[in-house]
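Re: that chain you flagged

S.,

Sorry for the slow reply, it's been a week of failed gels. I finally had a moment to sit down with the sequence you sent. For the record, here it is as I used it:
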Amino acid sequence: MDVVELDRIAVQEAVRVVEAVRGGDWERETPCAGWTLRRLVAHMTAQHHGFAAAARGVGGEPGYWREPVEAEEPARAHRAAADEVLGAFAERGVQEREFVLPELGGGFAGRTAIGFHFVDYVVHAWDVAATLGVRLRLAEDVTVAALAVARRVPTDPAGRGPGFAFAPALKVPEGAGPLEEALRLLGREPEAWPGTGL
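Prediction finished late last night. Pasting the structure tokens below so you have them in one place:
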């Protein structure tokens, strides 16, 4: 599978778990420190809009990256944003375009940028699943691919923690599967969130 197909699988799984959220769930705490599920899904929605804009050459415009204000139906807003980014990534030649990603400090080849989006949605799909105490439905080849991207994310402590995309990397125990290893490399603590099957 190429990175566009891997991303589609991760995004659709994120949509599935977000659509399992029920009324009172929106105020639950998540693996993203200090964020409720409502805030996490607003962030996910904004990132979809931003990456779609980047794929179409306007990622440098900050308005595309703004989180929606207290959407009445967060799951519906998230699904619409997911459809938008998947449509943008499906356009001919997208992997050869330059994506401007302000949060990451500049321009990136489309293939690389879509890889960032892919690993982010594997992790965020897990964040939502962990909050709800349900398992992700991602095949091993998808999680192996996510691990390959996670291993390339810089681990310099100066670029990890509050205000950055990922928390500091955690030690990976011997025998960890690819999803657990990817999560720990990106600062998640799977053992703190039982019910996800890791």
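What I noticed first: Strands lie at 98-101, 106-109.

Talk soon,
D.
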